[in-house]
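Thread: Newbie trying to understand structure tokens

Hi all, I'm a second-year student working on a class project, and my supervisor (Dr. K.) asked me to get a predicted structure for one chain before our next meeting. I've only ever worked with sequences, so writing a 3D structure as a token string is new to me. If someone could post the tokens and maybe explain what I'm looking at, I'd be very grateful. Here's the chain:
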Amino acid sequence: MPSTSIHELAIEQIERLSQRGFRRVTLPKPLENAFEQSTRAQRSERLWIEGLVAIGLFNIYVLVDHFLQGNTSWLPLQIRLCVATPLALLINVSMRWSPSKFYRETSIAVVTCIIGVTHLYLESNKSSTASAYAQVGLIVAVIFVNVVMRLQFAYALSASAILLASDLIFIQRDPFLNSPEKLLGVTLAISAIFMTMIANYSIGRDERLGFLMRLRSEIQSKELSFLNIELQRISCIDSLTGLANRHAYELQFAKLWRESIEAGSCFSAIVIDIDHFKLTNDTRGHLYGDRVLVRVGSLLLQSLRCKDDFAARFGGEEFVVLLPDTNQEGAMIVAERIRKLVEVAGSPALTEPGSHPRLSTVSCGGASCTPSDASCKEDLLDAADKALYQAKEQGRNRVCWGELESKHKENSPASKRSTVFSTNIG
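---
Reply by user tm_fold:
Sure, no problem. This is what the structure looks like when written as tokens:
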């Protein structure tokens, strides 16, 4: 099920369980499976620890009951220590392996019922005191299974029903209790079961509500992260051409420049300008001009060699290509490929029958250098921009290469460089 559907289902279940009155605790299958998967290890660990404490207290009670009451029969002690205790320990140890829900809940319910029924059997037909004592033991078993171990509602209800049925049989056959005492015993057992089942239901509902709210929060966080990533991606993309925009270009340029300094590798930049673009807009309209920009942007991407090469739309009809770890020879090959591709395929078709589009071409200016802490990336772009002007002056639809000028004085106005891109539109 898609995360969106799970999210909607979780919200629906939160609203359902938050309403007043009795509501079915069990969640729809996808959510119930997720709840079980999320809580299984923690629940099994809790059952193991609390079960071990309960078994220890049970055995202390057995020993105290036997010796303080001066019982002459060793049978109750043997049954409790040699049968009930090993069985309980076996089930308890199995919780360490995080068993399935059915085994976990059923095994604890069964062993609790066995101990409760055994207690009723051992205390029956002795005296009125022992019969009343048996009722107390039954109530303790109900509290243990419903509140202490907190079995899931259906299993807790089944165990409580079995214990209540056993108690009814015991009370009916007990010769030492009169009718009012039997009625009181049944009333106490039913009351204990009713109150502990309410507590069990509330705990189960709160556990699922907590899980659903955590799940909703996690899904919302993931969706928000995805939206933030998508928004960041959109903010770095030129909406018309699909290339990186000016902001993304500046970030990537700084990153690639630092990496080139660390690697000591050559770095090249190509500045591209569409020839006679203003004339194209004036004669064919801006919509056709947009189609030319889209076509050129697509061809730029096709001209790149690897994932490290970077192309961006700088503005208007101007583009820039950054080529890390590329010398002048390799960069000129890329620039010539761009020029040739645009010359061959850069003119979108016209809708008017018999019309022939003006040939779309580009002029390219490039420069290469080995970045260092003393050099500046603006100098590289300044050299590429001057080469672009040279290509324009020489007739357009060509590639020219520039050389970086050395700085004679660091703070001299003549030596300061700034990023200047041609706005020549032919």
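A couple of things are worth pointing out once you decode it. Strands lie at 267-274, 310-315, 318-324, 362-369, 399-402. The chain has twelve helices and five strands. Feel free to ask follow-ups in this thread.
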